[in-house]
Design brief:
The protein is 39% helix and 18% strand. The protein is an alpha+beta fold and 100 residues long. It has one domain (27-98): Ribosomal Protein L30, Chain: A (2-Layer Sandwich). A three-stranded antiparallel beta sheet has the order 2-1-3. The N and C termini lie far apart (62 Å). Residues 17-22 have low confidence and may be disordered.
Length: 100
């Protein structure tokens, strides 16, 4: 007499996956490339205003230069607004854009 087994290779188990959407950071702080500000000034600004490390600020500055713009920080509008104003005060082009 054969043994009964619960295993059936022709059935699939269904699993549910819950996706978490980060609704707390729907905006990006975009720094724009220009022909006026130096790499050093942009790097110093990203370190002092955005809290970037030296390496992170250098990478962002290179991406800003090569792509024409780059999102250097994400967050809520209220979080990014003072950063945007501080960068603008340093005569660097910056905008806040919705990411969604």
């Amino acid at each position: 007499m054969p043994l009964l087994n619960d295993y059936n290779p022709f059935t699939e188990e269904s699993t549910e996956i819950e996706l978490l959407i980060d609704s707390a950071t729907p905006f990006a702080l975009i720094v724009w490339n220009d022909e006026v500000n130096t790499f050093d000034w942009v790097i110093e600004t990203l370190i002092e205003i955005c809290g970037h490390s030296q390496e992170q600020a250098e990478q962002c500055a290179l991406l800003i230069h090569t792509r024409g713009k780059y999102a250097v920080k994400n967050g809520s509008y209220d979080f990014l607004k003072p950063l945007c104003m501080a960068i603008t005060n340093r005569k660097i082009g910056v905008t806040i854009e919705a990411t969604g």
